[in-house]
Amino acid sequence: MPALLEVRGLNAAYGSIRVLHGIDFSLEAGRITAILGANGAGKTSSLRALCQTLKTSGSIVFDGHQLVGRATEDVVRMGVAHVPDGRGTFTALSVEENLRLGAYVRADRAGLALDMEKAFSRFPILKQRCHQQAGTLSGGEQQMLAISRALMLRPKLLLLDEPSFGLAPLVVAEIFSIMRRINQEDGVSMLVVEQNASLALDLADHAYLLETGRVVLSGTSAEIQQDESVRRAYLGY
Amino acid sequence: MDALLHQIVSGLANGCIYGSVALALVMIYQSTHHINFAQGEMATFSTFIAWALIQAGWPYWAAFATTVAISFAGGLLLQRLVLRQVEKAPVLTNVIVFIGLLLIFNALSGWIFEHTLKSFPSPFPKDSVLASRYVSAHELGSAAVMLGVLGALFVFFRLTPLGLAMRAAAQNPDSARLVGIRVSWMLALGWGLAAAIGSVAGMMIAPVVFLDPNMMAGILLYGFAAALLGGIDSPLGAVVGGFVVGVLENLLGAYVIGTELKLSVALVLIVATLTLRPNGLFGKTVVSRV
Amino acid sequence: MKALGPRGLWLTVALLVLALLVLPFLVKNYRVFQFNLVLVYAIAILGLNLLTGFNGQISLGHGAFYAFGAYTAAVLMDKAGVPYWATLPAAGLLCFGFGLLLGFPALRLAGPYLALATYALALAVPQLLKYKRLEELTGGVQGIVLVKPDAPFAFSLLGQPLSQDRWLYFFTLAVAALMFLLSWNLLRGRVGRALVAIRDHPIAATAMGINLPLFKSLAFGVSAAITGVAGALGAITVAFVSPDSFTVSLSIFLLVGLVVGGLASIPGAIFGAVFIQFVPNIADDISKSAPSAIYGVLLIALMILMPSGVMGVLNGAWARLRARGS
User: What is the pTM of this model?
Assistant: First the structure.
């Protein structure tokens, strides 16, 4: 079965500074894949490269379509939803308006109402704060909002950039368990970038390890968790 | 008592003018988060276009509609061709570009249409049954037009997906792209709409103050005061602000400081609003974490 | 400069100074008058640059400070018989106070809102100057006519006498040199860095311990003072002040001069001043509206193509030259 996402020889640069040096990775439909690495390894850049918010060269084939050279807005329309680092919430708009925007490119009105209800049942706190300004939500609540907003697209692929960043462990655990449920119930493929390696490896089926813009290790989560060097450097034991 | 009533009603009528300009300013702000210093000159230029069409024999409403359409297209093109280049530039750069536009439009008006005062017709019949000794038919008509624009804007921004997308694109262009909003086109649309609203304001103002290239200079300032007082991101605030500014101008002018310092009144209003109540009467306070 | 060596550098500077000193005697009086205005505008732009270029506070109303300084000088000379040179420190001090006063509410105004408030100020100035209740002081619509000062001693070079305009040239040149030197000294040290830090990253600057309100208000005050001194010099040079000389156009022209010369560049002020003094004369021949249109197109073109102005281009070219040399 062809992979949902196939990346070959991906280079990316911020202006003249190259951050990705010809990396390869792929993602099977319905699976969760993690991208691990220390600060500055190029994890966030990988996601930005997929969304084409960065200058890229190489090949990114998603669902049979080449993404390199397209506008971000078009990538979104193909079914890629990105939850950026820092959440990217529309802080001046209400929770409900944020969710509506997630479904901006969709044509079906009826499905929208249904998906909003689903989001509220998954994250009841959002329903409570429905008309509140998004900027007044706590970090964890904004993360829930950001994920829900991305899901409003009914995406084929969900990109998550450091979902655990700045959140208390309890909140993180809750969010990660909901993410697993979303993957199992709705079959949404996920690509998760995380600095917190153990968290990511528990969630994901496959993982890639990046160091300074290059893939140095890849395999199933179990394989990576067993690897000596990874254990020492990233898992702390 | 009669005189006071007259001042107030006249102030409300002027307030419609200021409110219309303020609506255009709010439009630009809501879609681009910029303050358009060139709004007045753009509106004047549009009004000149209408004047030229009427001079050429066009019926009023045909000229009106065509001018609005031309202004919309012009505003859109302006964003696509010129303003897009400085979209990501710092605020100072944008302010300078707006001043540049102000100068260019003012110069164009003067060069093409010259500086002689021109009269501009009002579409509202003078001897309408609704006119009274307090308020003229034109004043009533302008008020109706302005409230109509206000209503349309309210519905657009609050109740349509496109309006929501425009607000989102202005606030957070990066996130807007991630939900598939074509941000550049949103900005262009915002400018088009603002230019169109400005042209309507200009065509409502010209019958009252006569048309010349510098028609809008002082009025723009009052428009700013009105927009700020009402809340720069609130169309309703723009209209209310307009009424308040109009009445204040008249009352202060008649009873307190005389009519010579009108612009200073606008100045004080602007500074006071920005200092004491920066979000105006109806604007939203946005909380952002550092 | 590496190629020239330190002696070469001094020689170039000396030649430049000599040229500046001889210049007024090589041209007619009217040209000298125009040069004087260039110097005056250069000082005014320098003041604006301090606030807008270095400190990032956008002022569309510096014409107001210029007007305030001009009227201070005019009123002191006309009503109180103060000698012309003494009006400069007075104008500077009063404008400092005026600027400081404005600096406080300005603290609460960010970018475009400050631009708006200063724009409103600029628009209001002519009306204020024409105000009937102040007429006794300001001369109302008619303004105040001044007497141009004579040179304090007789002098002749190359057959040309030391006329009033020529004397004022040297006077203005000296004041300009002083202003530029003081500004350069101020900006290259702690104060300069603080101002730029506030411009680029106000939150980080505060976190580093810079007293934002103090610096920002002082920036307003000093900037106003410098432009006020320019205004006083302007009044003396032109020997006349009237409300319609100080419309919003003046503020816009100063901004144009600033942008052309280069934001946050001290020597750029001179290029800017030359530009705003001479371009209208040339453009006026084309059409009454031409100067405005040219300025407008230029402002936009500069922002898109050459955001750091003439000095930016020169600095860039100089840097490339040096890189090639070494």
Answer: 0.83
